[in-house]
Amino acid sequence: MIVPVRCFTCGKLLGDKWEEFSRRVREGEDASKVLDDLGINRYCCRRMLLSHVEIIDEIIKFHEAGKNLRPP
After folding, report:
1. Among the ranges given (8-22, 25-39, 51-65), the one the predictor scored with the smallest mean pLDDT
2. Which superfamily does CATH assign the domain made up of 15-67 to?
3. 0.90 exceeded by pTM
C-alpha cells in the first residue's frame, strides 16, 4: 500500500528513501547496491523496501468507483 515511514522492527526512518530506491531500481541498478548507497544496512530495514508492493493506484480505482454507488 503506502510506503512505511519507519522500519517495523528497529524504527529507522525509511519513508524518505523510497523514491530514490524505486527510481534507481527501475532504471536497472542492482537493488543491493542501491540499498548500500542509501545506508540501509540492517536486514530488517532492507526487507521493508525490498518487499514493498505499490498497490495504492489499484485501490484508488475501487474507491473512485464506490463514490458512484452511494445513494445521494
Report:
1. 51-65
2. Homeodomain-like (1.10.10.60)
3. no
